[in-house]
């Protein structure tokens, strides 16, 4: 075991074990089955629903049996991102963990500390015979990363707790007390295809090396989006360009780091196009030198038999350059908080056309509705079809939280500083739970996790131990 000599061992042994079980979104059954068996083996009543959500009940320890139950919540799935040169099958392969100083990482892939570390905390509490706590109702959900289907479809009537600690926080210094609403959409541009004329030449253009990141937590950092950059490059080339194939991005809630497009154009336009590509390289390197210093644009000659018509290609390029991306509005009430944003996350070339997947986030539903309207209006001009796949509710801040007051008192002795109180632009399942249990008192806590949703994701070992000590201290007094 890679983590056998690191503390807290009772947490890391479970984190390393579930890291050997593939658990990307939509592929959580194996890890759900494993934890359901584990919970039953340690003597806890366990409900596994048809979605593979888990609700696990552990009685209070001696002296705490009659205290009100508290809900502990984390999600089973992880974002599956890897570097282009990494050979890894997220449906079959275990994560390859290693330690670098104070950080745990995975070779060439996301680490899954978001939210596997929260799951490991819950498993350690289930197994413990020494930690004092009230009755625990542990809820582990599926598909959080792709729209929170697990939390939305959970039967919360089995829960009695009126307080909840969510472990989906990557900022040790902060308690999260509110989050954004979300809307996941598909934008399908119908495709008309024509044969490529003999006097045409094809090039495959690649955009790689971007930093990427979380489409909520990192959207304000102005990092490059490979799909937007590709759209701008194709718009610069212009002329008689036609798109034969385009793909990029892996998850709708991750800022895409890579994209590739195959284009065709008349041979007499090739020299001009290559000159534009050279110019784009220089301009992009300068534009993104502070945020994406490893950005590389490259191209090679290719061959294809068919491509989208010129009209379809123009509509595609217009869509990539006009669909909302990045910060749309900053909060006027909380300094530094994004109020509304949109991420162009994934693009795929299909038989029926080109599909673009997007995720809008906002502090309230009216904000996300306005972005939905903007996308629908663009679709009306390009003849695209728009589907809203999922909407997730916001979690509004509760200034009267009793759980928060208790948590603040427990925090300072362990961390030797005052905790910061934050609302975030990312989405958490707390809003879905609040809709089901309107009186629910919630905070979200967690250790330091950096570069979530990217292959650079890393988890602080020392922070994991401090947060584990905090969780134990908090459970003694809630």
Explain what the structure shows:
With 478 residues, the chain is α+β, with helices and mostly antiparallel strands. The chain folds into 2 domains: 254 residues, Zn peptidases (Aminopeptidase), CATH 3.40.630.10; 211 residues, Alpha-Beta Plaits, CATH 3.30.70. The protein has a 6-stranded mixed β-sheet. Strand 24 and strand 25 form a beta hairpin. It starts with 8 loop residues before the first helix and ends with a helix.
List keywords for this structure.
478 residues; alpha+beta; Alpha-Beta Plaits; 2 domains; six-stranded mixed beta sheet; five-stranded antiparallel beta sheet; 30% helix
N-end to C-end Cα span: 35 Å
CATH superfamily of the largest domain: Zn peptidases
Query: How can the largest sheet be summarized?
Result: 6 strands, mixed
Treating each run of at least 4 consecutive H or I residues as one helix, how many helices? 11
Rounded to the nearest angstrom, the radius of gyration is 24 Å
Name the CATH architecture of the largest domain. Answer: 3-Layer(aba) Sandwich
Q: Main sheet: which strands, in order across?
A: 1-2-6-3-7-23
Helix coverage percent of residues? 25-40%
Form type:
elongated
Q: CATH class of the largest domain, please?
A: Alpha Beta
Name the quaternary structure.
single chain
Please state the average pLDDT score: 95
